[in-house]
Amino acid sequence: MANSDPVYLRVVEDLRRQIVDGTLPPGAPIPSRHQITRKYSVGETAARHALRVLAQEGLIVGRVGSGHRVREKPILTPSYRSRVPEPHNPFAMDMQASGRQPTWSWRSELAEAPPEIAQRLQLSQWSPVIRVRFVCRGDGRPMQLATSYELVEFGQSQAPEEGTGERRSTVARMAANGTAITEISESVHIRVPQPSESDTLELPTGVQVLHVERTYWAGERPVETSDIVFPGDRFRLVYGIPVHP
Amino acid sequence: MANSDPVYLRVVEDLRRQIVDGTLPPGAPIPSRHQITRKYSVGETAARHALRVLAQEGLIVGRVGSGHRVREKPILTPSYRSRVPEPHNPFAMDMQASGRQPTWSWRSELAEAPPEIAQRLQLSQWSPVIRVRFVCRGDGRPMQLATSYELVEFGQSQAPEEGTGERRSTVARMAANGTAITEISESVHIRVPQPSESDTLELPTGVQVLHVERTYWAGERPVETSDIVFPGDRFRLVYGIPVHP
DNA sequence: CAGGCAAAGTTGGAGCCACAGGCGATGGTC
DNA sequence: GACCATCGCCTGTGGCTCCAACTTTGCCTG
C-alpha cells in the first residue's frame, strides 16, 4: 500500500514512528541527510524533504552545522488559564509549575490606535491609547509575546516607560483605579507567525502560533485589549466555564 | 537590507504583499514556476520553495495540472463559541451566520476507553463508554471533526447507531436524564493534523489544527469528554468569562 | 599541558534537469 | 454545431551538484 506513495513519505513515517514511540527520545540526533540517503536508499532531495516535513511538524529541530535532533521536551504543557485567582499571574504560575524562572520585560508608550484596535476598544481611529509591549520569558527564553492597548484615562503614566519584572494584573490595576472589570472576552485562532515573532520565540519554521485577542470590559465598555501570541504546541489554553450559574 | 536574505523570500514577500493588499484577489492565478523564474530572475528551486511557503501559510492552493491560485475566501471567520445560549448549537449558529447550510453525520457505538480518555473521565482503563464520532459540514464540506466519550450510565442506547442531522446538546440531553451539567472545561492547543484529518478537512499541507479537549462536569464528576478538531485559521474560538460574579 | 586552529561533517539555500500525471484549450472530425 | 482527441502547460516528486555558514572534534603547536 505504501507502494506508489512518494518516497520521502516512507522516511517521514519511519522517523516519526521512532520519535512518537520513544525509540528516538527527546534530544536524540536524527540521521543526517547523507545517512538517510544510504539507510533508506533515497536521493538527497527526498532526504531533505523528509527532514523539512518533520521539522515543520515540530518534531525535530535543525541547526546548521550540528544536525537535527528530536525536539527537547516534546511539549511539556504548562497551561495558560483565563480564569485564575486574581491577582495571580497565570504565566508566573505556569512557569513555576514547570520549574522555570519567569521573567518579563515590557515597554509602555503613548500611541495611536490602529483601526482594528480602535474598533475593539470602540474608539475612533487613531485615538490616543497606551500601548504596552511584553516579552514573557521562562528561564530566559521568550515564550509569549503580548501587546496591550489601554484607554488613556486609566493609564497611570503617559510617558514612555520600560522595565522588567511582573506587572500588576489588569484587573488589579483597574480596581485600584476604582474601575471594576466585569468580563474578559477572548477570541483565539491560529496563524502563521510574523518573521519577527518566530525569531524571538525561536520557533522552527512551519510551527504556527496561537493568537489570543483579549478584551477587558467594565460593564458595556471595553477598557483594555491585548494580543497574546505564543507557540500553541508548547502551551495549552485552559478554560473552565460554569453552566448557567 | 533584503540583500543577504534568501532569494525565495523576496518572491514570497512580493506575492504575499499582492495577496493581502488585494492586487491578487481570491481565486486569481499565481504565476507558475517558470513565470516566476523569469519574472524574478531566480532559479526553479527558489520559485518552488516560495510557492510551497505560501501554500503552507494557507494563502494559496496548488492543484496539479492547473496551477496555484489565491485561496478562495481567504478566511471568513465564523466563530466557535463555548458559551452559547442552550440549547442552541454553536456550529449551526456559525454556519447560518456565514450563509452556509450546516449538516451533520454521526455514528455512536459502545467502546472501551483508551488510557487518556479514561483518565479524563476518571475511569479505569478500557472501561466501557459510548463513543460518538461527528463530522460537521457547511455546504457539504467537512469543517469540524469531533469524537465524544460518554459514561454508559447516561447513554440512551448502547447499540451502534448512526444518523445525520443535529443532535441534542450534551447539556440538554443530560438535563433530560436528571443530571445537571455544572461546568464545562476546555483545553486548547495546536497540533499537526493526522493524515486522515487533513484529508477530510481538505487542508492544504502545513496548515495546523486547533484541538479542543472538552469535558462536561456534573459537580465533581466528569460525565462526558470530547475532542474537537478544526482548522484554526478559518475558525475562531470565542470565550466570554465573567470576572468574580 | 593547554589553547588555538584546521578539517570534517552538517544544514540551508540555490541551480538544473527529468518524468509522471492532471488539466485545459485548441483544433479537427463527425 | 457538437464532440472528442491531442498537445502543451503546470504541479509534485525526485535525482544530482555546488556553495556558504556554522559546529564539533581532534590534532598540533607553542
Automatic annotation (TrEMBL), chains A, B:
<keyword id="KW-0805">Transcription regulation</keyword>
<dbReference type="GO" id="GO:0003677">
    <property type="term" value="F:DNA binding"/>
</dbReference>
<feature type="domain" description="HTH gntR-type">
    <location>
        <begin position="5"/>
        <end position="73"/>
    </location>
</feature>
<keyword id="KW-0804">Transcription</keyword>
<dbReference type="InterPro" id="IPR000524">
    <property type="entry name" value="Tscrpt_reg_HTH_GntR"/>
</dbReference>
<protein>
    <submittedName>
        <fullName>GntR family transcriptional regulator</fullName>
    </submittedName>
</protein>
<dbReference type="InterPro" id="IPR011663">
    <property type="entry name" value="UTRA"/>
</dbReference>
<dbReference type="GO" id="GO:0003700">
    <property type="term" value="F:DNA-binding transcription factor activity"/>
</dbReference>
<dbReference type="Pfam" id="PF07702">
    <property type="entry name" value="UTRA"/>
</dbReference>
<dbReference type="Pfam" id="PF00392">
    <property type="entry name" value="GntR"/>
</dbReference>
<keyword id="KW-0238">DNA-binding</keyword>
<dbReference type="GO" id="GO:0045892">
    <property type="term" value="P:negative regulation of DNA-templated transcription"/>
</dbReference>
<dbReference type="InterPro" id="IPR036390">
    <property type="entry name" value="WH_DNA-bd_sf"/>
</dbReference>
<dbReference type="InterPro" id="IPR028978">
    <property type="entry name" value="Chorismate_lyase_/UTRA_dom_sf"/>
</dbReference>
<dbReference type="InterPro" id="IPR050679">
    <property type="entry name" value="Bact_HTH_transcr_reg"/>
</dbReference>
<dbReference type="InterPro" id="IPR036388">
    <property type="entry name" value="WH-like_DNA-bd_sf"/>
</dbReference>
